[in-house]
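Appendix B. Raw example, untouched.
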Amino acid sequence: MPDGSSRDIVSRSGGSLAAGRLSAPLRYPRLTVTLLLWVLGLYLAFLARPAAITPEQELAFKAKIKEAEGVLGELALAERAYMEADLEMRQHMVWFWRWKPEARAAVEERRPAVEAAQRALQAVEQRRDGLLREAKAALGLWSEAGVEEGRELFKDSFAAGKLFAQRQSFWDAFFIVMSRREGDWLGLLLRLLLQTLVNFFSGMVVAVFVFLFRLPSLIWSYSPTLWSGLAFFSLAAVAGISVVASYLGLLFGAGAAAAYSTLWIATMQPRLEGRGAPRRIADGSREHEE
């Protein structure tokens, strides 16, 4: 039967272990914050559900879209007027027209009409874009439409970065194989693996920057408030970086496992060949004696 002192020692040791576990996040605040942001980003990317679109929002959205469609006819006329005015001006832009008084005068005479048609076209385009922004604002940035559009934007950026890495890895593999030395197959495999990992790391970093660069225009198209837009940008950035970090972690983990397996096979092959040599010698001596 354990006495009271032993119980005290056990309780103290258990309490110290519990206190150590609880104080671990305080001792490593940066690591703790990084892990929490990573988990939050994965949750936002795959599990978080956006706000559902109500029937009232859908009706307001359709009304604005219908109003924007009514501008399409006016937009087509403005585009046609601009193209005709620009084409008429370009007909007088012959070779060295700047040094020909007649051609230069004809171009300068028609330039105001082109600029006026361009301003009219821009005004119609701004009106159409404004109606589209009002339609999106009726749904809301945090709605299913806004969140899904943000996810599609990230998917496009991610796919573009991965495609860049694949193409670059193909050409790098081609040149590495062409420049390899005879018998150096281990170095060849390791170089191919390392270069592929570097290409995917570069492609994913570029994908994140492209996504963050294109994200503000998407946010602005929904006409949110300043704080709402900043919050959406921050959470979308955390989600995108978390997904890319997870992808790169799995990729580099697989690469490390492949490199370790390759090196293990390379180190075991001479041993296996060394073990087989005495057997071949013994078999040869037996045949010679017979």
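End of appendix B.
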